[in-house]
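Class prep. Sample record?

___
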Amino acid sequence: MTEPTFVTETRTAYDTVADSYAEELRDLLDDTPWDRAVLGTFAELVGGTGPVADLGCGPGRLTGHLASLGLDVFGVDLSPGMVDAARRAHPGLRFEVGSLAALDLADGSLAGALAWYSLIHTPPERLPAVVAELARVLAPGGRLLTAFPVGDEHRRITNGYGHDVALDAYRLQPDFVAGLCTAAGLVVEARLVREPAQSVYEKTPQAYVLARKPA
């Protein structure tokens, strides 16, 4: 089967920027207290109940943070360049190349799944299948946390982190993402929208949706 163009473009773009991205965003969490609070809540709810996957982990900055909070966490990313960067930054953690649309994970194998700005490069009409895949790998009682920029815009990105790239990004509405979770059989526990941080990376409000797979 031929790979969709958006998948190829996304992988190529993140391979191109991997090292620059890792360096530039390495300490970003220090400046985003809302992100730390939401991730801390997720970690507390998941606890030590089983493995957690950081899906679309990039260079592993949040994988490492969740590990520091006591979670048994590993990372998966579409980009081999990002996975290489993550392995160098966090040699004690496990990172694998993989696609959110077809995870190499057994049904019900995860206590938690994090999709942190990793749904935004998939066309919205394809997201129901992706969220259903995330729900598939959650164990009963397992939780999914996702974060994304709020809006309805489709953007074509041609430059990122000092490199020429070509990929699409989509802002999403919280109700739309919550609806995807519900359609996949999850129970939405929380949704939060905050104003953009004082950062060059945020131009619009940012949202978090937390959902649980029924026991």
